[in-house]
Every structure is written in C-alpha cells, then in structure tokens.
C-alpha cells in the first residue's frame, strides 16, 4: 500500500489493490508527485487510521511495516504519532533524503536504529538502499513471525474503532477573524487524551493542543484573519488512536473602517472622519497629493 502526503495525506492505493510485482511497478510509474508541506505526524496517523485497517486489506495475522520516506523536517509532532504505531507492534523504517532531519528520523524509527534509519544526499541515491533494505525487511518479518509463533504477544490494531473509540459530530462555531470554537460528541469509551491539530490549508505552521479525555470542546485563538483552516481531532488511548474528526472553516476578514468623510478644509489642513472598525486598536492614515489632472 502507498500513501503520499504534504499538508493532507492521500492514499494512492491500499494493501489489497495489487497482487503482483508488475502491477505495483506500473502503479509507481503512473504516480504523480504531491508537493507541499511536511506534516509527517498527520501522515503517520493517516496510515494508522486508513491504511492499516482490515477494510484496506490489512490482515490481522500479518506483520505490519511502515516505511517513511521524507525529504524535510516535519512541521507537526511526528514522534507522538510514531510512538502510537510502535506501541501497536508496527515497525517503522525511516528514510531521509536531502534536507531530512536525522535526529527526527531516529526518533520516529523503531529499534535497532542501525537497521531502521537511512539517509541519502539525493533521490537518485535511494537505489543504493534497495538491496540492503529488502534483506533487512524480510529478515525482520521472519524474526517477528518466529517470536509470535514462540508464544509472544503481538498487538493488533483493534477492528472496532467506530463510535466505541472515535468522536463524532464536529461542530465549529463562534468564528471571528482571530478565533473559533470546536465541539464534538465524545466516543462511547472515554479516551485518555485528545490531540487537536490545526493549520492553514494553503500552507503554514501546524499547531496542536493536547486535551484531557474528559473535555470535548476547545477555543482556538490567535488565528490569522481571512484564512481557511484545516482542523483534526484525534482520540488517544493507551495503545491505539481512534478515527479522527476533520473540519474546514475560514476565519472572518478583519473589519474595515467605513464612510470616510472630509470636512473643515483650509489651504493647508482638512479633517477626516470615519465609522470605526471593530477591534481596531490603531489607525494608519496615509495622505499624498493627487497627480496633475487626477481628481482631488
């Protein structure tokens, strides 16, 4: 299976989509590159929520491996999402290219790091990793399978994530130029915490808030005016992340002063007056002589 991400992760194909090597290679040749930001935490959560579920082709008895390929430092918290996957027995391999942050790769990847972390200077050099990575992946699968057969427990991703583990009905209200209010219906089983991630849809720094699982609303403030925001709410349990809620809302534009009037004109002065702009703390007034022939 393959997912591609920038600010919003996108599933290219599920685990059950292709059954032969040639089909996968053909799909790779037709893949269109997705440019944009680097929200690795959101991408890893997408893999857990969407790609490693039985309905996407994941078999409960099969070993779960995630290979992360990135060329930049994550703009959100990749470590929290990675830790959730690792707690579920999912092995993460991290491959960095060009500007990837090696410290972050080591934080995200599973142990032992000498087998799961790779870093190359440019994309063509990725081909040099293929042979070694293939051998390591196959060996790790065999090792994990042998341990399971010997009686050790391997955690599976719970199948029942619907209303039992996932919140519903995200409502965004009281939207102003700088704030908005979020509220949602909690899942039947109370989560340990909620992770709320929000960021401008056209690119910008991702911010997140972690709430106690007993809380089901949040006021977002210090937002940018006249901007579309993507909002995600993830319930976090001891060993799983439930399905996330997502919403999109634009903040209001800043209010403008209106009804500009000119009075008390003299040879070197004039009085200006206007209707106040709500929330304005200062005004900047610019004045210049009209060019010859233009209306005064």
UniProtKB/TrEMBL annotation:
The lineage of its organism: Eukaryota, Metazoa, Chordata, Craniata, Vertebrata. The keyword Secreted applies. It comes from the Eukaryota. It is found in: Secreted, Extracellular space, Extracellular matrix. This is COKA1 protein. The keyword Cytoplasm does not apply. SUPFAM superfamilies: Fibronectin type III, vWA-like. Keywords: Extracellular matrix, Secreted. Residues 166-255 form the Fibronectin type-III domain. Residues 1-133 form the VWFA domain. PANTHER family: COLLAGEN ALPHA, COLLAGEN ALPHA-1(XX) CHAIN. InterPro entries: ECM_Assembly_Org, FN3_dom, FN3_sf, Ig-like_fold, VWF_A, vWFA_dom_sf.
